[in-house]
Amino acid sequence: MGGAGMLIAQLMPVQTAQRVLLVSRASSWSRWGSISRAGGSGSAGSSGRAACCGAGSSPMGRRLMPVRHPGQALALGLLWGWLPCGLVYSTLVWSVSSGGAWQGAALMLAFGLGTLPNLLLMGVAAGAIARLARDARVRQVAGGAVLLFGLWTLWAALG
């Protein structure tokens, strides 16, 4: 994506290239919203998670879910990487205005390397949270917390 953005920037003024990228971002978000609204309760694995949007809704994505081995996870991650992400698109716009293809590529590489530790940590945390969510006591405490926050909000609004 960064290379495509830099190619566009070489063919037209930087401001025009930024507008093209912004329009493509808006178009991607629009398509993603249409996919998620049309989804419903497809079958992404046994729980149906992620079936309504993104890579899980494409025929190739459905074949990759549920993930059973690292190669399958890598393939799904590469496919999922085309989903729209505001941080990525804002960094792409920044890379287009960086002054050259190498500078833009370096900026995108730095962005990717900078976000990688957080994404890996979130993957580990998601597994731990999924195990916790299976415990009935944890679900009851979470439900009670939501109820208390709701009552607190209501009390603040009325008081």
Structure description:
This protein is mainly α. The protein has one domain. Helices cover 75% and strands 0% of the residues. The protein is built from seven helices and no strands. It has helices at residues 2-11, 14-39, 59-64, 70-80, 86-96, 101-133, 136-158. Helix 1 packs across helix 2 and helix 1 packs antiparallel against helix 6. The radius of gyration is 21 Å and the shape is extended.
What would a concise description of this structure say?
With 159 residues, the protein is mainly alpha-helical. It has seven helices and no strands.
Shape: extended
Number of DSSP helices?
7
Major sheet summary line: none
- Strand residue content: under 5%
- Tell me the span between the first and last alpha carbons: 52 Å
- Residue stretches low in confidence (pLDDT < 50, at least 5 long) are 34-53
Overall structural class, as computed from helix and strand content, comes to mainly alpha
Rounded average pLDDT = 75
Number of strands: 0
Oligomeric status: single chain
Order of helices and strands: HHHHHHH
Rg on CA atoms, Å: 21 Å
Secondary structure: helix percent:
over 70%
For the record, the count of structural domains works out to 1
